[in-house]
Here is the input.
Amino acid sequence: MDATHTDGAPDGDVVLQARGLRKEFRGFVAVGCVDLDIRRGSIHALIGPNGAGKTTVFNLLTKFLMPTSGKILLEGIEVTREHPAALARRGLVRSFQISAVFPHLTVSENVAVALQRSVLSPLKFWQGRSSFGNIDLRIDGLLAQVDLVAFRDHRAGDLAYGRKRALELATTLAADPKVMLLDEPTQGLGHEDVDRVTALIKQVSVGRTVVMVEHNMKMVAQIADRISVLRRGEIIAEGPYEEVSRNPEVIQSYLGSRSRTRERK
Here is the structure.
């Protein structure tokens, strides 16, 4: 289905919207009737215990899964049936939970590949660097945003894990996203790297919209403007951290999840 303007388009402050989003897998309802309004220029976190459906919602928003029903709008245009590549061209770009860099390329070469990918069609992907003007300035500008200029000539595979996550941010930024979707950006990081990546996300979010799935509640409390809490595929609370952290359903959901984990042990 071609993207079309809808009568129910969001107001100017909402850049990404979901209405009645539902996903079934052979009769199992993983996500049921989820509504979301992602405000322009905000950091919006999706949280919830294991199995809550947050990753499924994330994959629906980025079109790595097709919804069973419901609709998704980007800047007032329905994009429910569009493919991930089409969404990326519209400015909705995602990262992945597992580090995804080219380990045998240098840091600057990884960013160069991302820049070429963002502006060229597949048939012209291997066009020479000269067609991009002064690409080195663009590379250094992106690396500066994530504090990796000093590592531009290092092999990506030799970087510490936290710096690999920073490089992923740079390659995501290379697509000049309007909406940046981050899947567990602090997954597997030590405390020092969590603090570094948290600060970088806050830094690069200026002028952009960020949606993230995240399990680190300290990190979410520090930088998220708004939080949607999922349980069993439905949103049970939404608002700023101070508000949702006091919600009885949220407290019960998280404490219940921890209790069941202790019982299994």
